[in-house]
Amino acid sequence: MKYFYAFLVIIFGFLLVRYSNWLVNNFGYIDSAEHYLGTYGGTRLMWKLIGVLFIVGALLVISGIMNNILISIFGRLGTGGI
């Protein structure tokens, strides 16, 4: 079932990258993205980066690497700090 959900997330990420211009035209600019990611096109770049992060995250889940990353970061929280 994780493959199906990961495939849907990959499609969603692709759509974010593909239709970033449509998102900007319909929802407007985000001032912080324009300030930190460039004067013109920063919002488009933000949507594309979010889409790429979705795709990479889904590929990490499919390959099983995401589980290892989460355990290495948050593993000590489950053991009571020992």
Describe what you observe in this structure.
The chain has 82 residues and is an all-alpha fold. It has one domain. The protein has 5 helices and no strands. It has helices at 2-18, 20-27, 31-37, 42-63, 65-78. The longest helix is centred in the middle third of the chain and has 22 residues, at 42-63. The relative contact order is 0.16.
How far do the termini sit from each other? 34 Å
Mean pLDDT: 91
Which structural class is indicated by helix and strand composition? mainly alpha
Low-confidence stretches: none
- Biggest β-sheet: count, sense, barrel? none
| Radius of gyration, whole Å | 17 Å
Transmembrane segments: 50-74
Keywords: Membrane, Transmembrane, Transmembrane helix
